[in-house]
Amino acid sequence: MLVKVYEKNNDPAVMERVKDVLENGGIIIYPTDTMYAIGCHALKERAVEKICRLKGTDPKKNRLAIICYDLSEISRYARMDNASFKLMKKNLPGPFTFILEGSTKLPKIFRNRKEVGIRMPDHPVIREIAKALGAPIMTASIPYDSEDDPGYATDPGLIDEKWGDMVDMVIDGGEGSLKTSTVVDCTAADFEIVRQGCGTLEY
Question: Within its chain, how far is the Cα of 90 from the centroid?
Answer without folding.
Answer: 19
